[in-house]
Design goal:
The protein is of the alpha/beta class. The protein folds into 2 domains: 211 residues, P-loop containing nucleotide triphosphate hydrolases (Rossmann fold, 3-Layer(aba) Sandwich), CATH 3.40.50.300; 110 residues, Coagulation Factor XIII, Chain A, domain 1 (Distorted Sandwich). Helices cover 23% and strands 33% of the residues. It has a 6-stranded mixed sheet, with helices on both faces. It is globular, with a radius of gyration of 27 Å.
Length: 403
């Protein structure tokens, strides 16, 4: 078997269109459809017949050895269509798609199991479907089974397996294919927490194995950790192309869960500045806000809140309010606020968010500006936040102990 160790993936101006609610499996279905299209009308400016739509519009990218491309975006953005084109399930309507090398696809990992076959038989069946030779499957069999954690049940029909066991075995088979190219789609959440960590480490090792990789995941921290660059898609178009952190920030900025306020409150936040855009974990970040109070409103009922949100996961890690500091705003005119935050967080990109809160009405009265900061590696620790742990060792002298 010829192996393409210089494998690559390239999309050049790829378009893909579909038709609403129509599938032609037989010639007698396709002929009336063709006739309708001859007498039908095109949608203006799109080159589409009535009832058609573009799932992808002018998509271009290239992924080479040692590179990992992350695809993110809301449901319906076109991510699954790209994967189907990558795995040759579909052909593009326009443009060029080049895929060189044997593809390993971590997609719906347990979907192809035969329920009446044992786990052992399904390992060989799935391996053959994925292009592995029998001797290659035999050579990797023990490693596959050990990784899956189902060794006690490997000779049991998979219809007796739980869904988690099936997913673990399916992932293990696909993850040990040793492909020239790797496509990963939402499979990093299979099994329990321990297996998820093991699965993530396995995919990370494959990504670092100098092969082209494409990752689709709603777990944004997986994109920022695994990928070297990313595309943000929306309704079939690329709306951001760059580093994973930048694309995740653009995604979060366009899909913020916090409702936008009309700005009818007494307090407005006009500008935000930070003492640094890049800093080490554990260093202090000063957030400076330029604000103003309306003369015809009651500023005493409002407070300003500052939050720190992870760009990777979207999780709000910290939030503080000016009323905790006993601040009293002026009744009218401009004023400034400076808040110091010790950034005891892991390496990554973080959003500093601001808004004004009406305590009487219990609502956001003004949505302020936000800014991103890049936190680099500081003192090593595990977890979400740095607790600045300290420890002491005391050696007891047993000669002075009494019984």
């Amino acid at each position: 078997m010829i192996r393409h160790h210089d494998g690559y993936i390239e999309f050049a101006g790829v378009w893909k269109k579909f038709r609403y609610g129509e599938v032609h499996n037989r010639l007698r279905d396709a002929i009336p459809s063709f006739a309708r299209r001859l007498i039908g009308r095109r949608e203006p400016g799109e080159g589409l017949w009535h009832g058609e739509f573009w799932a992808l519009r002018d998509i271009s990218f290239r992924v080479e050895r040692g590179q990992a491309l992350g695809l993110i975006g809301p449901n319906g953005a076109g991510k699954s269509t790209i994967l189907k084109l990558l795995t040759r399930i579909m052909q593009p309507t326009h443009g060029r798609r080049l895929v060189r090398g044997r593809i390993g696809a971590l997609i719906e990992v347990a979907a192809g199991f035969h329920p009446d076959l044992t786990g052992r038989e399904n390992v060989y069946l799935q391996g053959a479907i994925m292009g592995m030779e029998r001797r290659e499957i035999t050579r990797r069999f023990d490693e596959i089974v050990e990784f899956s954690g189902v060794s006690l049940f490997i000779d049991t029909p998979v219809k007796r397996y739980s869904s988690g066991m099936q997913a673990r075995l399916g992932f293990s088979i696909a993850a040990h294919l040793d492909p020239d190219l790797l496509v990963v789609d939402e499979v990093l959440a299979v099994g329990d927490a321990a297996f998820q960590a093991k699965a993530f480490a396995r995919v990370q090792a494959l990504v670092q194995g100098a092969i082209p990789v494409v990752v689709v995941s709603h777990q944004l921290e997986a994109i920022t950790t695994l990928c070297t660059h990313a595309l943000l898609l929306d309704r079939g178009r690329v709306i951001a192309n760059g580093t994973p952190d930048a694309c995740v920030l653009a995604y979060l900025g366009g899909a913020s869960a916090r409702p936008r306020a009309a700005g009818d409150g007494a307090i407005s936040i006009q500008a935000i500045q930070t003492s640094a855009s890049v800093l080490d974990s554990g260093q202090t970040l000063t957030v400076a806000l330029s604000c103003a109070a309306r003369a015809d409103a009651w500023a005493a009922q409002e407070t300003i809140r500052v939050g720190v949100r992870s760009a990777a996961s979207g999780e709000l890690l910290f939030e503080c309010s000016t009323d905790a500091f006993g601040m009293q705003f002026p009744t009218a005119g401009p004023f400034d606020i400076a808040i110091a935050l010790q950034m005891n967080v892991q390496r990554g990109v973080y959003l500093i968010e601001t808004y004004a809160w009406d305590r009487a009405m219990e609502r956001v009265s003004f949505t302020g500006p936000s800014v991103s900061v890049d936190v680099r590696e500081g003192s090593s620790f595990h977890g979400i936040v740095q607790m600045n742990a300290d420890a002491q060792l005391v050696v007891r002298d047993e000669r002075h102990l009494t019984t």
